[in-house]
Amino acid sequence: MIPITPIFVRSKEILQELSSLLDKERLAYGELDSEVIIDLSEQKQTLLDEMNLLNEKRINILIKFDIVDRKKPTEEEFKNWLNKQDSSMDSVRLLMQECETLLKKCKTQNNTNARILNTLQKRNKHLFELLQGHSSKNKVYTARGSTRPISSKHTLGRA
């Protein structure tokens, strides 16, 4: 039997921890606690690094047992192979489905947090510009579609 079950078990645990961290991160954004946000980011990175190592280990095992192509291993190859196996691999199938479900949840949570962070950044930028004394009239659009203040020396009336 191929020793990939422990890899999927640990992947599931990591994804559950990551989901919990993403919930905490969303709350930290609401409280604007930068120390907690930085700490959570470091914890997330540690989990993601471990997940990458597990994926590399899983791929190496699948290559070793000639389940996927050595030169270009794909997830689809592994899924096709797994579907052809008997009921002894049902636990791996279930773990893989649970991991995929958790991964989708984490991606949704991460996208939500990214939108919240983007909104906070825009608000902070606007407040900073107000503190600097920039008016909304002295702005130009950037390549990314946002605005940035310009010097009064560069406005049309002064050209």
* Low-confidence region ranges: 155-159
Distance between the termini: 76 Å
Number of H/I helices: 4
Can you give the mean pLDDT?
87
Helix content: 55-70%
SSE string: HHHHEE
Secondary-structure content class: mainly alpha
Provide an overview of this structure.
The chain is mainly alpha-helical and 159 residues long. Helices cover 70% and strands 4% of the residues. The chain has a two-stranded antiparallel sheet with strand order 1-2. The longest helix is centred in the last third of the chain and has 43 residues, at 90-132.
Topology:
Blueprint: H1 5-31, H2 34-64, H3 75-84, H4 90-132, E1 139-141, E2 147-149
Antiparallel strand pairs: 1-2
